[in-house]
Specification:
The complex is a heterodimer of chains A (791) and B (45).
Chain A lengths: L2 E7 L5 H9 L16 E5 L2 E8 L11 H13 L3 E7 L3 H11 L6 E6 L1 H6 L3 E2 L1 H8 L3 E3 L8 H14 L11 H15 L5 H12 L3 H7 L3 H18 L3 H20 E2 L7 H9 L5 H18 L1 H13 L3 E3 L5 H28 L7 E6 L6 E6 L1 H13 L11 E3 L1 H11 L4 H19 L2 H17 L1 H15 L7 H7 L3 H6 L7 H11 L8 H10 L7 H21 L23 H20 L1 H14 E4 L2 E4 L9 H9 L11 H9 L6 H12 L3 H8 L2 H13 L4 H11 L2 H29 L6 H18 L7
Parallel strand pairs in A: 1-3, 1-4, 4-5, 5-7
Antiparallel strand pairs in A: 2-3, 6-8, 9-12, 10-11, 13-14
Helix pairs in contact in A: 3-11, 5-11, 7-8, 7-10, 13-14, 13-19, 13-25, 14-19, 15-16, 17-18, 18-27, 18-30, 19-26, 21-23, 23-25, 23-34, 25-32, 25-35, 27-30, 28-29, 29-30, 30-31, 32-34, 33-34, 34-35
Chain B lengths: L1 H25 L10 H4 L5
The chains are: A alpha/beta (791), B mainly alpha (45).
Chain lengths: 791, 45
């Protein structure tokens, strides 16, 4: 039989980093509590007989939150062959509190003092030999990040597991406590063979641990008897039982620290100096806003856009020049040709409209590529003659004449399908459905990767942990806990782990509220449609993508305030304890790995569920019932398609939000399968009648475009995230409440954005504006009404 | 003939995707989140 070694330790002490290093796994590592909420198993790279178990971080074996229960239950019920107690060497005192309890479990323990590289850098000294003697278990210095001491720690743990001789705890409590513990053991624990385990249970019963009372199935008589022992001890020591145990443990730890640790005396560290600015009461929020603006600006508007333009227009478009050699010359030639063609076309339009040739200067329409705004420019008859001569004498520029032209995927597939004489229906399915839909989603991969690089960097360097701390200060003013912000930080990658991270919140009401609001933050899957809206409707305006992030935070804070004032969520916020890790430069490998894990998941999804969705969307877009019966439709007939009919039946819901047409409606619905589907669906539908971006630009105004963005950002998440909500709520009624609230809130925000936004975009005041103002009033009432249920 | 070949290839791709989705579902992953359980510990199952 194999050996199971559990990694137990405080949150954020490096257990998952150690787990990844030992098993070769790629489990997500974060430097805030709650990243690991379920235990994970992996085979040790050096010996497949050894299973390493990564447990959620715990501060003690008296659990308060769900993930702490997971860890304790694993240690008590599964009883691994050995425990590696991972300790953050930079904070020995706090970490040893758990150690004093783990060594009482009757399971062989080996202590791994992690982050020794940082300890040494700080100039601190830990006498591990003496520490080992004091606690009575082997102590090994390691650095999980730098792969130091890893083989040694496993070897020692395996040896301890094979010997199966658990250490006897060296620590003894005050005489009166030991007396009470002996009574408890005698009273109800003598059936347990292992004396160490007896002792651990007796301590827990002394602490009045209800879960242990239940687990042992103690009768009321026995509990009363134990209570008498505890009460007399409490009277003697003039404190409550739990505090007595805690105090004694810390006194014991104090003596160990005094004898084993030598701290280098020094002033403020670099991290402290940075924190004086970054977490400053007045500067913290503006700095956070600037950082996130830059992240989204660069990801979506600059670097990300250059790469995404290449992906969209090149790889999934007509093609591109290799290394961009010849692109500039080709663009100049193409622009010149287009300019002349516009004058010639303008002349023809004039003739068509007026029935005669112009006798002097004439105007011709020019459309702005970014905004689709049509402006009129003036040309003289000489200009026309010159343009006409140019067009007649010049061929339209061919990109292949200017450099090495790499054709895009659609032309390659199209020529392949033409070559084998493929049927038009199948060709349409492949080109207008799969390639257009999946290509539109994959086109955003560069932007996603750039965003994930930034997020990985901010997480790994320690800044995001500060953000949680900053937000706690703000949240607390509104009766919320900063613990609610951790799931939202995690949710920027994917909403599902964000929802799961809510397990770290012990207060059930706060936990449910956090589950309901976590997915408001834009996850990676929402980025493509945010970028699409920004590019198509707002001409690539830099403020759109950052505004989506801040709208998500606004929704979380306002929802928190409003919900907290209801009877269902009233109550004091959960305390938020979090250790701020020292700032450090993340390794390039870690940042790239984190980016790739998230990015690959996005690509995989595009190749599976999105591809299947595009087939369904294409079929329902291009097939429908007409007077001739059910048949494939022409491009101008797609208003009669199956999808159009579904959309039209539901479009009324979105009329007040300004996008009550069937195209936007079905995109919102298919977005429930996966949010990337919004992009895929719009690419298929709008692509059927012309250029996707141009058609989309014509279908939305600025106000309705942003309302569309706001609604799809805040409404119910994808089915996978809904599944996670249902599981974490563990209650169907609560699940529907959550989905209902998200959709309702999104609808109201969309209404306000559209109806009030119209006043600022030149569409003017209308009756609908009154409803928009009413929506603001409802929001303000929810925010500022008297709080009846909280002090 | 060309159409038949393309349709068969397409059907094979769709079948492979459905099979992989079913398999990942059986493994406890959720297809709509990309099945990246390493990232979240399998929150959907």
């Amino acid at each position: 039989m194999g050996i199971r070694i559990a990694l137990a330790g405080n949150p954020n002490c490096g257990k998952t980093t150690l787990f990844n290093a030992l098993t070769g796994s790629n489990q997500f590592v974060g430097n805030w509590p709650g990243v690991t909420v379920e235990y994970k198993e992996g085979k040790y790279k050096g010996d497949k007989e050894v299973t390493i178990v990564d447990l959620p971080g715990i501060y003690s074996l008296s659990p308060y939150t769900l993930e702490e229960v997971v860890s304790r239950n694993y240690l008590i019920d599964e009883r691994p062959e050995a425990i590696i107690n991972v300790i953050d060497g930079t904070n020995l005192e706090r970490n040893l509190y758990l150690t004093t309890q783990v060594v009482e479990l009757g399971i062989p323990v080996v202590i791994a003092i992690n982050m020794m590289d940082v300890v040494e850098k700080n100039g601190d000294k830990i006498n591990t030999k003496k520490l080992s003697e004091e606690i009575g278990v082997p102590v090994i210095e390691i650095s999980a990040l730098k792969n130091r001491g890893l083989k040694e720690i496993v070897d020692v743990a395996v040896k301890a597991a094979n010997e199966a001789k658990p250490q006897s705890p060296k620590h003894r409590f005050d005489g009166s406590v030991e007396h009470a513990l002996a009574h408890i053991e005698e009273l109800c624990l003598h059936s347990i063979d292992d004396e160490n385990v007896q002792r651990w249970y007796s301590i827990k019963l002394f602490e009045r641990d209800e879960k242990i009372q239940e687990k042992l199935g103690l009768s009321a008589d026995v509990i009363n008897h134990i209570e008498n022992d505890i009460a007399s001890c409490e009277k003697e020591l003039d404190d409550d039982a739990e505090s007595i145990i805690t105090g004694e443990r810390y006194n014991y730890i104090g003596t160990i620290i005094d004898g084993c640790v030598k701290k280098a005396s020094k002033g403020m560290t670099t991290s402290d100096k940075i924190d004086r600015i970054v977490t400053n009461r007045w500067l913290a929020l503006p700095i956070f806003a600037i950082v996130m603006f830059i992240v989204y600006y660069v990801s979506v508007t600059t670097v990300g856009t250059w790469a995404t333009d290449w992906a969209n227009d090149g790889v999934f478009g007509d093609g591109w020049h290799l290394f961009a050699i010849g692109s500039a010359d080709y663009n100049d030639a193409a622009d010149e040709y287009a300019e002349k063609a516009l004058i010639v076309d303008g002349y023809d339009i004039y003739v068509e409209e007026n029935g005669s040739e112009p006798t002097g200067d004439f105007e011709y329409p020019v459309e702005d590529e970014e905004t689709a705004a049509v402006e009129y420019e003036t040309a003289s008859l000489e200009d026309y003659a010159e343009a006409k001569a140019y067009i007649d004498s010049t061929e339209e520029p061919d990109p292949a004449d200017y450099g090495v032209w790499v054709p895009g995927i659609p032309p390659i597939i199209e020529s392949g399908l033409d070559a084998i004489g493929c049927n038009d229906v199948v060709k349409g399915l492949i080109l207008d459905g799969i390639v257009a839909g999946v290509g539109a989603v994959l086109g955003f991969v560069p932007q996603i990767l750039v965003l994930f690089i930034f997020l990985a960097f901010l997480e790994a360097c320690g800044y995001m942990a500060r953000v949680a701390f900053i937000m706690d200060r703000i949240f607390r003013k509104f009766g919320l806990s900063g613990k609610s912000f951790i799931p939202m930080l995690i949710g920027t990658g994917c909403g599902i782990p964000g929802i799961m991270a809510s397990r770290t919140i012990e207060n059930d009401r706060d936990r449910k509220m956090t589950i309901m609001t976590t997915t408001f933050i834009p996850c990676g899957a929402k980025l493509p449609f945010i970028a699409m809206v920004a590019g198509a409707i707002f001409g690539g305006a830099s403020w759109v993508a950052p505004s989506a992030y801040f709208l998500g935070i606004f929704a979380i804070i306002t929802s928190g305030i409003m919900l907290k004032k209801t009877k269902m969520f009233a109550g004091d916020p959960a305390p938020f304890v979090m250790e701020l890790p020292a700032y450090h430069w993340p390794t390039l490998g870690n940042v790239l790995r984190s980016m790739w894990e998230r990015g690959w998941s996005f690509i995989k999804k595009a190749g599976t569920i999105i591809l299947l969705s595009t087939i369904v969307v294409w079929f329902t877009t291009f097939f429908g019932f007409t007077a001739d019966g059910f048949r494939m439709l022409e491009e101008e007939e797609i208003g009669m398609s199956i999808l159009a009919n579904i959309g039209k039946a539901l479009a009324w819901i979105f009329i007040p939000l300004g996008f009550g047409d069937w195209e936007a409606t079905v995109a919102s619905i298919t977005g429930l399968v996966a949010k990337e589907n919004i992009v895929g669906t719009l690419a298929i539908i709008y692509g059927a009648t012309g250029d996707v971006y141009e058609t989309m630009r014509a279908a939305f105004t600025n106000a309705s475009g942003f309302a569309f963005l706001a609604f799809n950002l805040l409404c119910a998440p994808c089915f996978a995230a809904m599944g996670a909500i249902k599981r974490e709520m563990n209650n169907t009624r609560w699940f529907w409440r959550a989905i209902g609230y998200q959709c309702g809130y999104a609808w109201v925000i969309g209404l306000i954005v559209y109806q009030c936004g119209k006043c600022f975009t030149g569409e003017g005041f209308s009756v609908g504006t009154i409803f928009g103002i009413a929506g603001i009033c409802v929001l303000l009432y929810g925010l500022f009404r008297k709080d009846k249920y909280n002090n | 003939m060309g159409t038949v070949i393309v349709v068969l290839i397409l059907a094979a791709i769709v079948a492979a995707i459905v099979r992989s989705l079913v398999k990942s579902r059986k493994r406890g992953e959720h297809p709509a989140c990309g099945g990246d359980c390493g990232h979240c510990g399998g929150g959907c199952h």
